[in-house]
Amino acid sequence: MAKILGIGIATLDIINEVEGYPVEDSEQRALAQRQRTGGNVTNTLTVLRQFDHDCALAALLTPDADGRQIQEKLAQRGIDLSSAQILGFGHAPTSYITLNRQNGSRTIVHYRDLPEFDLNAFLKIDLAPFDWLHFEGRHCMDTAAMLAMARRAAGTKLLSLEVEKERPYLDQLFSFPDVVFFSRAFAEQRGFNDPEAFLNAAHQWAPQAVLVLGWGATGAYLKESLNDSVQLVPAQPIRGVVDSIGAGDTLIAGVIHARANQANADWRAAVTFGVRLAERKIQQFGFDGLAVDPNANNQPLCHLDDLGPEDAMGVQPVDGIPSVIVVRDHRAIRAYRNVCPHNGSALSKGVRGYLADKSTGPSDGMSLRCRLHNAYFEPLTGACTGGPCPGTHLTPVAIRQVGEMIYLDDLDENSRPTGK
């Protein structure tokens, strides 16, 4: 697998899911709220890590609570932050996202009060170990200098650039990368509604580069060289859009993975893989699980944000009753069969209702409780701590955490939980 350096921005995304987009000067209750890392390059690296690439992020990070949360989440995903610059001041960039459940569209309000990752910070990075350098097209004066330096030092390394929106001095970036990923929004900002006309014009700006242009539900367009015709990789029909946040970043990750994983693969095959991956992404919340075989029966049990710091929830319904209890005790995650060892009944028959009131439980900490006969269980071991079945345990269920998704571990069918 490749060693990939991404240069860009890391944000904390606070996502409110709503039934429909609110009108101005109105109040609406969010159906759910999630927090995850964001930023174009950060999203791309998040997806690439799932394909076992060795990923590092070059960005500015902050010591405030949101900045620490970003660092913790990225470290959990295995993204190397040694190339990042951690400031002693400032607030982490934050994106407040309203996600419309009716159609998967998203509206973003972004806040930042930080400078950009600059040339001085980039000069401190040893580029020798990296196979691929991927740049976000921002802070263009310094990014042009970074690209020029990387080009001289690159040798056989590949350089790619993402261009999402118009920025001052952007054209200075085009003469350096091997691959440029354009957004539809940028093409339209430059006055083009025809993808083919845009890519033919763009190849005058970057004649050395392979050009990829995402075009939403149509798919993606590819132009490999000045004399090649523009190719369309069409999108396939999907069930419906659930979450469009980061779809373009996922397309980029898919192309980089396909090329880095098999250097002699043709560009059309790589773009096709990226389009298929983006299609999967927009049909789910977040980025986790994208490397899982889509034909496998391997749906996540839940998302980490579905659970509070001390929480439990029932999942995997069988005949309408959850068959698995997922328990979170701060950083520790456990799962048990929803079967009380006292008489085989379910501890609870709903998504919630598994926790005892701390004032009435047998200990000051969190306890699981069977609602039928008040048996109490320790959350991290499953041991009975009170009630009619002392000395027994809840039956553990093997799980694994992929990013912020919780999955059943790879069990054979005979060992999967069943309801009672």
UniProtKB/TrEMBL annotation:
Enzyme category, top tier: transferase
List residues of the Rieske domain: 299-408
Question: Mind telling me which PROSITE patterns this protein's record contains?
Answer: PFKB_KINASES_2, RIESKE
| Name listed for the protein in its UniProt record | Ketohexokinase
Enzyme Commission number(s) of this protein: 2.7.1.3
The superkingdom listed in its UniProt entry is Bacteria
Per the record's keyword annotation, is Isomerase included, yes or no?
A: no
Cite the InterPro entries for this sequence: Carboh/pur_kinase_PfkB_CS, Ketohexokinase-related, PfkB_dom, Ribokinase-like, Rieske_2Fe-2S, Rieske_2Fe-2S_sf
Q: Which UniProt keywords apply?
A: 2Fe-2S, Iron, Iron-sulfur, Kinase, Metal-binding, Transferase
Q: Which GO terms describe its molecular function?
A: 2 iron, 2 sulfur cluster binding; ketohexokinase activity; metal ion binding
What organism is recorded for this protein?
A: Halothiobacillus neapolitanus (strain ATCC 23641 / DSM 15147 / CIP 104769 / NCIMB 8539 / c2)
